[in-house]
Sequence to fold (476 residues):
Amino acid sequence: MLPEEQVINEIVNNVLNRLRDQDEFKIKEITGTNLGLFDDVDTAVNAAKRAQRKLRSISIAEREKYIASIREVILQNVNILAQLAVQETGMGRVEDKIIKNRLAAEKTPGTADLTAEAFTGDHGLTLVEMGPYGVIGAITPSTNPSETVINNSIGMIAAGNSVVFNVHPGAKNTSLLAVKLINEAIAKAGGPANLVCAIKEPTIETAQQLMKHPDIALLVVTGGPQVVRTALSSGKKTIGAGAGNPPVVVDETANLRKAAQDIVKGASFDNNLPCTSEKVLIVVGKVADELLKYMQGCGAWLADRQVIKQLEQLVLDKNAKGEVYCGFGVNKKFIGKNADWILEQIGIKVPEETRLILAEVEAEPPFVQLEMLMPILPVVQVKDVDQAIELAVQVEHGNRHTAIMHSTNVNNMTKFAREIDTTIFVKNGPSYAGIGAGGEGYTTFTIAGPTGEGLTSARSFTRKRRCVLVDGFSIV
Ligand code: NAD
Fold:
């Protein structure tokens, strides 16, 4: 075992032992279970199937108790989940991951998200209720490892489902710790074992087995374009939450000082790992210098042309001749790293507080067109807001994911929102306001642009069922 693995295992065991030591903890109820972890897909799906059957006969009030217990246990462990994620994946920032885990625990909707519709009239009463699918197969990313597990689990259980996770292999320990904590929390509230299951050693093969398993009623897939495509071709009903390349547009009417702060905060949050983070800044030329000056005053560092060339060589994939290969991705080694560390790799020393690197470029590949997932923000100047909107629509690549605008002109905001047609559109705030951090609305870590469910919540994991009482109980 590698020393790093040993440290991670120790952290996981310490958390679990601490939980077990708590007096009120009903450890008896989970003795003999695997805390949701299974060696193979079949066994996991069977266990989840049995758990879901039990859940069907349990009241909604009880479900809500399990969810309250999940929230409580996760909130007690946000620090450890955040630390473990950074240690294991080498990506992101502990303080930001604490915020994300907290958001998932506190602002993921529970059973209150489920509503029924009613039709009444001469022929009686018809109810349309939201029922569970059964066992859900869920695939989760390395960029929000525990957050996605927490968020999906709460929504899926609230809707009456159980779930089997195939988590990202590179974030296995963090994601599986979240699964274990959730199982401990459900047991503590007196609920059945294995409502939330996971494969102990997840691989692409186990993910594909899960996608094809006959007892999986719904797939919920959060990740890059490839996994969403694979799931969509499985023939099963799929909720696909894929990649984004969110542009942020600043027009000449914006409050530039505030816009600067918001963009630095959003684009550097968790080192730009969130799919919602600002990934391209498009600014109207006449206010560009002032905006960049303010941004440099709040944690951004402006690269010159030569440094930009060096950064391209450093962080992008190269072809066999060692040339930067613009058509393809970024070098994974740099994903989610701190800005000062990235600059240090090309011999530039900046203060540790530097959160973001600004790179003024043309509206061309590579930086502008790639989802880089690191704190390097390409900046493009345009002549006016119309050109800004046109470019933003192009760089978003039809992902229909997220866009941000800083403006005080309602017509400009309306035009951009209409033309880009994204699932999330944030006005005058950091991108993360769109998932409920400093903005109104609930939180999700599964934003289903490609399949249209949008910001998923319990109701996304339900089937609508109509129940018709003919000629009765209409009292109008
Ligand atoms: P990734 O695509 O590398 O992995 C995501 C998951 O898919 C992992 O569990 C991985 O093991 C699995 N996977 C990958 N290829 C597969 C295949 N062919 N068959 C079966 N399973 C496969 O993503 P990542 O690097 O962990 O996460 C970052 C990506 O996810 C970014 O593109 C980001 O925009 C996106 N993302 C989207 C959302 C959203 O809500 N829309 C949320 C988070 C991340």
About this structure: The chain has two domains: 4-242+455-465, 247-440. The domain at 4-242+455-465 is CATH 3.40.605.10 (Aldehyde Dehydrogenase; Chain A, domain 1).
